Amino acid sequence: MGKIIAIANQKGGVGKTTSAINLAASLAALELKTLIVDADPQANATSGVGINPKDVEASIYECMVDNVDPYDCIVKTDNKYLDLLPSHIDLVGAEVEMVSINQRENKMKAALADVKKEYDFIIIDCSPSLGLITVNALTAADSIIIPVQCEYFALEGLGKLLNTIKIIQNRLNPDLAIEGILLTMYDLRLNLSNQVVEEVKTHFKSMVFSTLIPRNIKLSESPSFGVPAISHDAESKGALAYLNLAKEILEKNQVEAA
After folding, report:
1. I need a surface site. Which of 95, 122, 183, 242 has the fewest CB within 10 A?
2. Which residues make beta-bridge pairs with 177?
């Protein structure tokens, strides 16, 4: 039975999609069957693994709003261990359309219930908001990874997200755990980056992953080629960092790679 990990932070530009694509690709590289669920209307995780959102006929939107079987929506990627449940711009309207639906916070959980047994890991890329789609993702998830960029406003909004997580735990998903806080866009040369790392580790201690995700040109370039960084340049610092993160998560969850 697969573990569902949501990657969420209502703050934009912190590396959610980059982390979702590259963590999933790294798990797949370790021969763990992995599914990316693109729960962001921008569909960047979809295009980031080489699928054109305009060619998507059925997406997570149809699964949640029209109860379409997710098996009819899942598409294969170039990696045989990595699949995608794509997104589409239609997802923008889902929050409004779902307002009158019964159990609306549980629609994604219901959609992934059967799929879960087919995968070792399911990684959900959330949109930069705390709206109904993100609430659905956190209700469906076993745990959450919170990306935090190594910049001045790093901790801004983190309290609000942690408060939302508590509400979800109390009302919708008591088993939701924090997998860890992931420090992204780290630049060793900048005092500020090092200060942010120290500050976050002081505040959150063991909740912070040991792996730091660096600022890396290959991580920035790879989406334009429609591939994860590990396929674009497996020796790049960015690709190696996400591989280390995948290994850290496997060790934490006592899962052995192939």
Report:
1. 95
2. 143
d(C-alpha 214, C-alpha 209), whole Å: 13
Q: What is the pLDDT of residues 50-102, one digit of tens each?
A: 999 989 989 998 999 889 999 999 999 999 999 999 998 877 777 777 777 88
Q: Cβ of 213: how many Cβ atoms within 10 Å?
A: 26
pLDDT tops 70 at residue 258:
no
Given strand 75-76, what is the order of strands in its sheet? 75-76, 82-85, 34-39, 121-126, 3-7, 143-149, 177-186, 208-214
* Rounded-to-integer distance, Cα 228 and Cα 23, Å: 9
Beta-carbon-side half-sphere exposure of residue 112 (alpha carbons within 13 Å)? 33
Neighbours of 207 (CB within 10 A): 13
3-state SS assignment for residue 62: helix
What pTM was estimated for this model as a whole? 0.94
Residue 1 confidence (pLDDT): 66
Please give the Cα distance from 15 to 246 (Å, whole number): 16
Cβ proximity of 144 and 178 under 8 Å:
yes
- On the question of pLDDT at 254 being above 80, the answer is yes
Residues β-bridged to residue 178: 144
- Helix (H) or strand (E) holding 5, with range, is strand 3-7
What's the rounded Cα separation, in Å, for the pair 209 and 182? 6
Residues 9-27: tens digit of each pLDDT:
998 889 999 999 999 999 9
Instruction: Provide mean pLDDT across the span 129-157.
Output: 91
Q: Please, which residues bridge with residue 15 across strands?
A: none
